[in-house]
Design goal:
There is one protein chain. The protein is α/β, with parallel strands linked by helices. The chain folds into two domains: about 70 residues, Alpha-Beta Horseshoe (pyruvate-formate lyase- activating enzyme); about 120 residues, Alpha-Beta Barrel (TIM Barrel), CATH 3.20.20.70. About 45% of the residues lie in helices and about 15% in strands. The protein contains nine helices and six strands. It has a six-stranded parallel beta sheet with strand order 1-2-3-4-5-6. Strand 1, helix 3 and strand 2 form a beta-alpha-beta unit. Helix 7 packs parallel to helix 9. The protein is globular.
Length: about 190
């Protein structure tokens, strides 16, 4: 908390605050909840960036002190999600629904990844889920980039994702237009 408070004057001037990201912050739910609580006691705006691929109890303990959830939604097709992430889409979607029921302010962040979800059908399905089953009003589309290639090389690990950034202005325009038609505010490259 001492480290956070070093920038307290900046937060007050800018309207900013504390954003906890990771890895997955909710893998340490008690630490996150305590840090959010102490930040709220210091009158700071609080946010967490999460994949929501954690048990609900890991999220719910932080909600009393959370102003904003920046939540990733990678896909709404369970087979594709499992194939690419090895995770449980049901858990992620259930957590989105629980956040809606709790009236938590959520901004949905969608990484658009070639050969995974960077196509009109996937984008449409993601937007439909956000518009119909969450309380989010904002959706951010994050076109795939290749900034991680060098990190993988440094770790001597194979890089199996696309080697070129997503460059599909038509898809981005479609995503933004369709999201707006569904009542969402869309941000590209957010």
């Amino acid at each position: 908390m001492a480290e956070v408070m070093r920038d307290h004057a900046f937060y007050l001037r800018s309207g900013g605050g504390l954003t906890i990201s990771g890895g997955e912050p909710f893998m340490q739910p008690d630490v996150v909840a305590q840090l959010l609580k102490r930040s709220k006691q210091a009158a700071l705006h609080t946010a967490v960036e999460s994949s929501l691929h954690v048990p609900w109890r890991s999220i719910s303990c932080a909600l009393p002190w959370l102003d904003l959830m920046l939540a990733d939604l990678k896909h709404v097709d369970a087979a594709r999600f499992k194939q690419w992430t090895q995770g449980s889409l049901a858990r992620v979607l259930d957590n989105f629904r629980r956040l809606a029921a709790s009236n938590t302010h959520v901004i949905v962040r969608v990484p658009l990844i070639p050969d995974f979800n960077a196509d009109r059908d996937s984008v449409r399905a993601i937007i439909d889920f956000v518009a119909n089953e969450t309380n989010a009003s904002d959706i951010h589309f994050l076109p795939y980039h290749t900034l991680g290639i060098h990190k993988y090389a440094l770790l001597d690990r194979p890089y199996t994702a696309a080697r070129t950034p997503l460059d599909d202005p038509e898809l981005l325009a479609f995503a933004q237009e369709y999201a707006c038609r569904q009542g969402l505010t869309a941000l590209l490259r957010g």
